[in-house]
Specification:
124 residues; alpha+beta; Zincin-like; three-stranded mixed beta sheet
């Protein structure tokens, strides 16, 4: 898949989020990169060669105090090449982009990996 289409799918995945979430996405950039950097892998607790599909870098809404402000935007990075390597068809890429975008947006709202795993498995 070419980069332009991939980026369009990421934008569409963000726009497809429920309005109550989109309305609270202030001061956040969503970007596409081909691969994670060594530093990004380290921040995620991974080593070179391990897979990282997306990464949230910032201060979750639940951790912000009254004096939070005048800070650079939080950043969500969606990694194109690992997603493409995981998926065989364009339709699978589209579904995976939506899943990864929702996952990283959830981190912005303060939901951790353990809880996300429960939600994705359909556990309450």
């Amino acid at each position: 898949m070419d980069r332009e289409r991939f980026e369009w799918l990421v934008t569409r995945a963000v726009q497809a989020l429920p309005e109550e979430f989109v309305a609270r996405l202030e001061n956040i950039d969503v970007v596409v990169e081909d691969w994670p950097t060594v530093e990004q892998l380290a921040r995620a607790g991974l080593r070179h060669g391990q897979t990282l599909l997306g990464l949230y870098e910032g201060v979750p809404l639940t951790k912000r105090g009254r004096h939070y402000g005048l800070v650079p935007p939080d950043k969500i990075t969606i990694f194109r090449k690992p997603i493409e390597a995981k998926c065989r068809y364009d339709a699978e890429i589209t579904v995976e982009i939506k899943r990864v975008v929702r996952h990283e947006i959830a981190h912005h709202f303060g939901i951790g990996d353990a809880r996300l795993e429960q939600i994705e498995k359909g556990e309450d």
